Amino acid sequence: MESTPPPFDPATLASRLESIVSKSQISTAAEILATHSTDKWYASHPPDVVVFAESTADVSAVLTFASQNQIPVTTRGAGVGYVGGCVPIQGGIVLSTARMNQILGIYPEDGVAIVQPGVITGDLQAAANQVGWDYPPDPASLKECSIGGNIATNAGGPRCLKYGVTRSYVLGLEVVLPDGQVLRTGGRLHKNKTGFDLIGIFTGSEGMMGVITEATLRLIPKPAARAMLAAVFPEFNLAAAAVQNILNSGHLPSALEITDTFTLAAARRRLGADVFPEGNAHLIVEIDGRHAAVESELEELYQRLLSLGASHIQRAVDEAACEHIWKLRREFSYSLRDTGLTKLNEDIVVPRSKLVELVEFARSLEQKTGIPVACFGHAGDGNIHTNLMVENYDDPKVRAHADEALDLLFTWILENGGAITGEHGVGLAKKPWIRQALGETSLFVHQALKQALDPQRLLNPGKFLDL
Amino acid sequence: MESTPPPFDPATLASRLESIVSKSQISTAAEILATHSTDKWYASHPPDVVVFAESTADVSAVLTFASQNQIPVTTRGAGVGYVGGCVPIQGGIVLSTARMNQILGIYPEDGVAIVQPGVITGDLQAAANQVGWDYPPDPASLKECSIGGNIATNAGGPRCLKYGVTRSYVLGLEVVLPDGQVLRTGGRLHKNKTGFDLIGIFTGSEGMMGVITEATLRLIPKPAARAMLAAVFPEFNLAAAAVQNILNSGHLPSALEITDTFTLAAARRRLGADVFPEGNAHLIVEIDGRHAAVESELEELYQRLLSLGASHIQRAVDEAACEHIWKLRREFSYSLRDTGLTKLNEDIVVPRSKLVELVEFARSLEQKTGIPVACFGHAGDGNIHTNLMVENYDDPKVRAHADEALDLLFTWILENGGAITGEHGVGLAKKPWIRQALGETSLFVHQALKQALDPQRLLNPGKFLDL
To answer: How many CB pairs under 8 A join A and B?
Structure first.
C-alpha cells in the first residue's frame, strides 16, 4: 500500500499542532527526531514531528487533527520494542506517551492499579509490592519498558507460564480511537461480560487500532515466598524431558527457563568458566507461594531433577539468592552480545513437546547457513528465544543471507504448528512472514477490523497490515 | 431494527437445506422446534428449522447458504444459558452444535485439549483429570453446559478468582465466519503474538460474530490437593471483611464464596435447620496446591477466620469432604426455587470493596419494592448473584414491577462502577440496559466490529446490538 504525501511540510505541521497542544509538547529538533526514529531493532525512519502527550485530551485533540488532515500517527511508549513496531516508517507524527507516566492509584481493596500508559512496568511492580500486592507480567525489559507498550504487544515474560500474559491483567482501558473519540471499556472489575471483549481488540494491536491513555490492571496478592533451583544437565534433551516431567507431575512453577550449549558457552566466557558447572544445558525452576509450601515443593523438585539426570543443582531459598540467579540469567543476552556478532532475537514459539526438535533444527540451521544459533527462554511456554548470531550484519549481502536463514527458521516453525512471535509482536521485523503465518482468511479478518476502526489507515501505517 | 420477512416458508427452507446437509440433520418437528425456542431464561421464539451440524463443513455450508439468502442463523450449544442468548427471536435457522461433541485429543505434552464445541464442560474436566491435568473454568452448570457456549459467553465460575475465566484457556479456535469462510486462529501454543487477538473477538461474542467449530484449550497440571473452610459469621459485613483480609495477607484462594441471610434461611428450610449453625453470613474458602502446602495454609486460614469473628468453621481436608461442601453450596439455588417464587438471577459485579454496600442496597431495594432479594456468589471477584425473588412473575403487571426493580438495581450497579453481567452475558435479559451500560462510544465500536464481520447482521439477530 502506498503512502500519500503529507499535506503539510514538517514546519507547517508543527505550527499547526501549536494550536492544539502547548509548544513545550512539540519538537522538530534533530536529536529528538533521531531518538524517535527507531527502537531496539534495526529499522529507522524519522517522524516529521514528535508530540509529547500529557493528557487524554491531548491525545484526542492530536488524533482528531490528524484524522481530519490524513496525517500518519505512530504511538510510542518507552521505545524499547524488539521488532520496529514504533518506527514511524511513513513519517508524520510520533505521539509519545512517555510524559503520561503517573500511577494514578493502587487499590488493594479492589485488587487493581490504575495507571497512565507511560508508567515503567518495574515501577508499577515495585509500587504494588510495597503494599503486599503484585503485577505478575515480567518482560525482561521491565526496568525500561512501559505499560502502554506492554499492552500494545501483549507482553509476556518468564512468570507468564503460571500467571499468564499482559492480557490477563488488563481489566479496563481508556483508548482514544483514530478519529479522536475517547472509549472507556471495562473497569475495576475482575469479571465483566458486558458486550464484546473490546479490551482484547486493543491489547496486542501494536498501535494500529487506538491509543491507550489509561489502564486498570489486575493485581494479585504477592506470594509470601519464592525459591529456585538452577540445574545443569549433560545434554539439552534431558533438560527438555525434565520440563515435561515436572509439569506432568502436578507442579506449576512460576518459571521454567532453559538454555542451550551455545548460550552457556558464551555465558562462561563472559562470567567465568566456574559460574556454571560442566554440562550442555541449564534449567531454572522457580516456584512461589506460602513459605512452608515453597520449602517442601523445592525439596520434591530437587529430588526429581536429580533423578532426571541433573549433574549439578543449585538451590536459592531467599529473595537475594533468587535475584542472583535471575541476574545471571539476564546476563545471557549480554553474553551473546559480547561475541561481537549481531543478535537477531526471534521470540518463536513451538508446542511444548517440540523443544528438542527445535534445538535440533537450530543446530541443522547453523550447519546449513554458517550462522551460529543460540537458544534460551521460556521452556514451559515453548517460547524459546532463538538468536541468530550474525557477523557484519550491516553488509547488505550478509543481511540477505540472514533473511534467508530466518525464512528457513520461520517456515520450519509454521510447519511445526508454531508461531513466529510469542511476545515481541510483528512490527516491521516479522512483516515479511505475516501472510504465511496468518493465512488469507485471518488476514481478511484483520483487514476488516482495521477498516472498521481506522478506515483512513492513519494509525501506525506501514506495519503488518499494509502488505 | 426491523427484521425482513424470510425468503422461504419453513417447509421450503427445510427442503432447500436438504441439498446441503443430510435429511437426518434437519428438523421441523414441533417438539424439536419447541426445545430449540428457549434456554433457562423466560423468552421463547421458535425457529423455522433446526439444523444439527456434524462437521465444520456442515456449518460452513449452512452459513454460506444463509448469507446468500439472508436467513437469520442462531447458534445453539447445550441451551442452558441464563439470558435468552440462544433464543431465535427472528426465527430462521437454529444451528445446533450438540452433535459436534467429540474430545478430539488431550495432549499433556503440549498442555492442551482439542475439542468440538458440543463437548460438555464437565466431561472435558473429567477426561483431563484422568491424565493428571485440569481445565479450571467451572460454571455452576458444568455438567450440562458445553464448551461452545462457554466460549460464546466467556463463562466464569468460582475458581476463576485464582485461575481466570474461559478466555484465559482458549489458545486456538476454528470459527466459521458469517459468510461461510473457515478461520483458524491460534493453536497449541501458550503464547502467540501473531497479529491481533482474534480469539478475543469471538470469545464472549454471544454467537454474533461467527460459529465456533473447534477449540484448542489450555490445561494446567492438576493441583495435587485441595481443602476448604466453610465459616459462619454473625453478620455479612464480617464475612465481607474476611474476604478483604484473606487477600490482603497474601493468600490467593481458588474460591471465595459468600452467602447472605436470605439465602441461608432458604437453605436451612430446604436442608434442615442444623445444616448451618446460627449466623447471618456464610463464607467458603477453597485452596489448592501441593499436599503439605494446602495443609499448612488451611491452618493459617482457620486461625485467621477465627480471629475475624467466624462463629463456626468447618474444615474439609479431602476430596469427599470438599465435594460435600460444594454440594451444599449448589443447593442454595434450589433452596431459592423451593420458595415457589420466580428467581431472577442477576450476575452483577461490583468492585470487590463494595460487597457490603451491595448487600445493603439489596436490603433497601427489597424494602422499596417488596421483592425479596437473595445475594450469594463469587466474593473474591465481586461477582455476586443477586436474585430477585418474584411472586406471580407470569402476571404482566408483576413483570413490569420486577423490571422496575431490575432497573433500580442495574442503575445502582453502574453508578457504583459495576457491571450488569459478569459471566452470563447480555442476551435478551440484559438488552434493555446495554446502552446505559456501554455508553455511546462503546456501542459505536461494537457496531463497527459487527458491521466488519457480519454486514448482513444474520448471526443471532435481535440481540443486544439490534437496539
So the answer is: 299
A276-304 per-position pLDDT tens digit: 889 999 999 999 999 989 999 999 999 99
Mutation test of the interface with chain A: which of B169, B445, B447, choosing the one with the most A Cβ atoms within 10 A? B445
Residue A22, CA atoms < 13 Å, CB-side half-sphere: 3
Contacts of B419 in chain A (CB under 8 A): 187, 189, 191-194
Q: Are A26 and A93 in contact (CB under 8 A)?
A: no
Phi, psi of B115 (to 5 degrees): -135, 155
Interface of A with B in 249-308 (CB under 8 A): 249-252, 289-290, 292-294, 296-297, 300
Closest in B380, B382, B444 to A189, CB measured: B382
Give me the residues of B, 51-90, that contact A with CB < 8 A. Answer: none
Identify the pLDDT of residue B337.
Answer: 86
Residue of B nearest to A172 (CA): B417
d(CA B220, CA B215): 16
* Cα atoms in the Cβ-side hemisphere of radius 13 Å centred on B58: 22
Q: Nearest Cβ partner of A446 from B154, B160, B196? A: B196
Residue B3 pLDDT > 70: no
| Burial class, B132, CB count within 10 angstroms (exposed 0-12 / middle 13-18 / buried 19+) | middle
The average pLDDT across B215-228 equals: 97
Residue B156 grid cell:
466464569
Contact status, residue B401 vs residue B344, Cβ threshold 8 Å: no
If one counts every other C-beta atom within 10 angstroms of the C-beta of residue A224, the result is 18
Indicate if the pLDDT at residue B213 is higher than 70: yes
Least confident of A91-95, A272-276, B34-38, B432-436: A272-276
CA distance A200 to A212: 12
Q: Which residues of A touch B426 (CB under 8 A)?
A: 193-195
Which residue in A218, A302, A219, A220 sits closest to A253, CA to CA?
Answer: A302
Section A357-365 average pLDDT = 95
Q: Using one digit for the tens of pLDDT, what is the confidence trace for A326-343?
A: 988 888 888 998 889 999
Q: Identify which of B223, B244, B422 has the shortest CB distance to residue A250.
A: B223
Cβ contact A312:A279 at 8 Å:
yes
In the predicted structure, residue B58 carries a pLDDT above the cut 90? yes
Distance from CA of A15 to the nearest CA of B (A): 31
pLDDT in tens, B360-381: 999 999 999 999 999 999 999 9
CB-nearest partner of A419 from B194, B197, B350: B194
ipTM of the complex, rounded to two decimals: 0.96
Question: pLDDT band for position B1 (50/70/90)?
Answer: very low
Distance between CA atoms of residues A247 and A378, nearest Å = 14
Query: Which tens digit of pLDDT belongs to each residue from B295-325?
Result: 999 999 999 999 999 999 999 999 999 999 9
Q: Nearest-CA distance from A30 to chain B in Å? A: 33
**B204/A contact by beta carbon, under 8 A:** yes
Domains of chain B: residue spans and CATH:
103-221 (3.30.465.10), 224-339 (3.30.70.2190), 340-425 (3.30.70.2740)
Contact B462, B429 (CB under 8 A): no
Q: Where are the beta strands (DSSP E) in B177-273?
A: 182-186, 211-218, 220-221, 225-233, 255-259
- Lookup: cell for A227: 525459591
